[in-house]
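Human: Note token order:
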Amino acid sequence: MAHCFGGRQPPMYRLVRSALLYYAPLSFFWEASHYAAARRSIVDAALRDESSTALFAVRLQQARTSRPEKLFSHALFELELAGCNEVTEAGLWACLTPRIVSLTLSDCINVADEAVGAVAQLLPSLYEFSLQAYHVTDAALGYFSPKQSGSLSILRLHSCWELTNHGIVNIVHSLPNLTVLSLSGCSKITDDGVELIAENLGKLRSLDLSWCPRITDAALEYIACDLNQLEELTLDR
């Protein structure tokens, strides 16, 4: 990579490398990721400024801290918490700075409906939200409102076992502009939920219904009739 920058490491690499060295005893790692084209414009200006000390992407995996917000600055655009069972709801709230455009929460036992409410309330620019949380219910999706529809385009709900078709009602009413939706492992979703999706989320380009055992041929008919812009459909298992 260095030859592309006249023998100098790009600024994001220098930052991530130094963070790894400094925080190694905490047993987590920081990761700068490649942004999709739809989000790249948000950070382009900062990337052109080599003197910038802004932190763009953080991934915490099994971090043993209840106050993760103390580990990074507020100039944060992408955050992933994976298996961070010591992170409390208060700690998560403190992490949610308004600049975040991509958030992933997976396998964190303290993430429940109120945490999703904090996401909806505190992240006005959120573009991509990925959630794996076994305790999240339909009520969590009720926290989203049409004000998020202008920014939130990608919603991935993985193995949210308590979600039902009532949660789908909340999604289609509050987030009609979704282009990517995953309900992988949401085992209580039925054909009726898929019908709601097909009738109301006409901009969908990708839909993942894998590991949804209650989906039948009827759901495929709804998809074929109404989701004319769909490019990718996942039905594994």
About this structure: Residues 1-124 form one domain.
